[in-house]
Amino acid sequence: xxxxxxxxxxxxxxxxxxxxxxxxxxxxxxxxxxxxxxxxxxxxxxxxxxxxxxxxxxxxxxxxxxxxxxxxxxxxxxxxxxxxxxxxxxxxxxxxxxxxxxxxxxxxxxxxxxxxxxxxxxxxxxxxxxxxx
Length: 133
Prior knowledge:
The chain is built from 2 helices and 8 strands; from the N terminus they run E-E-E-E-H-H-E-E-E-E. It is an alpha+beta fold. The protein has one domain (11-132). Strands 1, 2, 3, 4, 5, 6, 7 and 8 form an 8-stranded mixed beta sheet that branches.
């Protein structure tokens, strides 16, 4: 099976407040079964893949891969650069593009949470990553 491309540019929705900045990242992907019975989950938005012996394992491993990707980028201070290289762009609350995102605008690394992966329809899934300072 070939890789799927995004339907459009990925977007970081940035909500700046006087005391904090919150960022929502909506991600999507797909899951499929290989001929040998291995299940593969792929997230083109972050260029990540995972696999498992069942569909549930593949989803669980994808959630873990997303967590490790975001955590690693935050620890190295490279999250904004990595996302830009993957084609992400920042949108403010009005939907207008803003540059730069300034994800590292605070001395403290952002806290983050990954919503549970939701099946959207046959073989497709979505989730949201929420970052906040």
